[in-house]
Amino acid sequence: MAIRPELNLRLPNSPGALVRVCRALADERVNILAASLEASGSLRLVVDNHVRGLGVLREQHHQVTERQVLVIGAPHTPGGLAGALQLVANAGVNIEYAYSGVSDAAGGASVVIGVEDAQRAAFAAGV
C-alpha cells in the first residue's frame, strides 16, 4: 500500500476527449497507471510522473486538481484484495471510491482507493 497523487479533471462529453488526454500524456512519456472516467466526465488518473502529467494537462487547458489516494497492490487471485482492504476497514476508514489499474508485479493489479485523509488512513492501516 502506498500514497500517490491522483489527478482529477473534467472532460467534455464529446468524441475524442479522452483520447486527446491520453495522447497528450503519451507524447510527453507520462504513463497512466490507473484511470477512471464517470458519465459526468469526471476523470481520475494515477500516472507515473504526476508533476509532468499535471503540467501536460494544464498546457492542454484542463483545470486539474490533485488528491492523495491509497494505491494497494493485490495479487490476481480469489480474495487477493480482501486482505489489504481489511486493514483499511479495521482502521475505521471509509472508502469513498475505488478503481484499478496495472501493477508492476506480474499477475497483479493496483487498486486505487479514495479516502477522506490518505495519510491518516495509511498510518491507521499500519503502512
What report would you give on this structure?
The protein has 127 residues and is an alpha+beta fold. The chain folds into 2 domains: 2-67, VC0802-like (2-Layer Sandwich); 68-124, Alpha-Beta Plaits, CATH 3.30.70. 29% of the residues lie in helices and 37% in strands. The chain is built from 4 helices and 6 strands; from the N terminus they run βαββαβαββα. The protein has a 6-stranded antiparallel β-sheet. Strand 2 (32-37) and strand 3 (42-47) form a beta hairpin. The protein is globular, with a radius of gyration of 15 Å. The N and C termini lie close together (7 Å). The model has no long low-confidence stretch (mean pLDDT 89).
In short:
The chain folds into 2 domains: 2-67, VC0802-like (2-Layer Sandwich); 68-124, Alpha-Beta Plaits (2-Layer Sandwich).
**Tally of discrete structural domains:** 2
Tell me which CATH architecture of the largest domain applies here: 2-Layer Sandwich
The secondary structure category is alpha+beta
Distance between the termini: 7 Å
**Rg calculated over all Cα atoms:** 15 Å
